[in-house]
Amino acid sequence: MRRATPQDAMDKPGFFASLVYPDYCLLWGATGCGQAAAWALVVLRAALVYELTRSNAWVGFVTMAAQLPSLVVTPFAGFLADRFDRRRLLACTFTLNLLNNLLLALLVISGYITPAALLGIAVMNGILRATEIPATQALLPNLVPSHYLLNAVALNQLMQQGSRMIGPLLLLPVIHFIGPKPAFLMCSVLYALGWSLVMFIQTSSRGVVGQQGIMTNLVAGIRYIYTQPLLLSFMLITVFHCALTMAYEAAFPFVARTQLGLTADKDLFTGPTYLMIGVGAGAVLGNLALARVSSEKFRGRLFLWLGLASGLSPVVLSLMTTIPTAIIAVAAVGASTAAFMTLSHGAVQMLAPDSLRGRVVSAQTWHTQGTMAGFNAINGMLMDVPWMTAPLLLGGTGLMFVLIVLGSLLTVQLRLVYTRGVPTVALAR
Fold this sequence. Notes:
Layout: H1 22-53, H2 56-67, H3 70-83, H4 86-110, H5 115-139, H6 149-177, H7 184-198, H8 214-218, H9 220-227, H10 229-245, H11 252-258, H12 267-290, H13 296-317, H14 323-351, H15 357-383, H16 390-408, H17 412-420
Helix pairs in contact: 1-2, 1-5, 1-6, 1-7, 1-12, 2-5, 2-15, 3-5, 3-15, 4-5, 4-7, 5-15, 6-12, 6-14, 9-15, 10-14, 10-15, 10-16, 11-12, 12-14, 13-14, 13-16, 13-17
């Protein structure tokens, strides 16, 4: 049960209203540390594997390796998040990820790292991340009052997406003054801080798992989404969004080299870092703007507008040729995509019953993370095609998503969301 909490006040919460709840504050900080480490790793791994292989396809494969485990692990992770104490599950994943990152840092610094080893360590990191995310999402609603849930989800997404700025920003001075290889140790430090925060969370939270057997319980979340037309509509539009506008991690080294002219050895690390910082800064602004949105109808309209902006902003980014303009453009990408995902995650959190929430959110994560993993690999291979350019790759996929969003106006479920807003009551089982 949730601990005794401060007296609820405002109908319209302030930006950081949910942070007055101690356990939520601890989870928020731990999420920030874990996500900052994860995004720092995205930048470092992509630059390192390109340095080792000079292949864009390898960049895509390693990026995919950190995301692909979601296809297998996430349904089991959702089951675990409903079967066991979510707080203890989080502590376990942070501990193992700390050890995983220490191993990677030692291999890189000692010079024994190989592309195959990097690939294997990325897979393990992905497995642990795929377990951590559903546990976090399932625990979160138990830490704040129900009418603060959107605010709590928005702040959590703010931290998750904004950590794209925090993690890479912490890397820059290390890369500049010491070198790229010691920067891998920064990820271990961040995971250690996150672990220490998780250990102080006191709220016990778990779902309800039936006696039908493991596989029956595993597919319960997927079945629930596929039998609820509104949830299914949210998931499908989000899957297209992740595939066409958010599989950019593997593309950043390519954009930095071909569009921004950053070709020196150290630029392999600093160029993508600048772009990821821009994404994080935009994500912070986008989620801060959502933190005080309480109108159901306005949230529905925002979902449509942000979908269109998510498709158009990569087109603008692909045309930029200087670092300052690219950072501004990539901030627009971060703001629109992060806010879109926040609204989507918030809707799923509110529509899913608590007894199934871990499995429902894991089912959504299973679809979205798996899609991003596959498209990062596809983008990596496309970037090795001689005639491929950033405007053709990012601009083409962005415009495809714009067409999908416009087409979604023809569907009953999403058209009602765009005009009437997102329901805030859990759907019947």
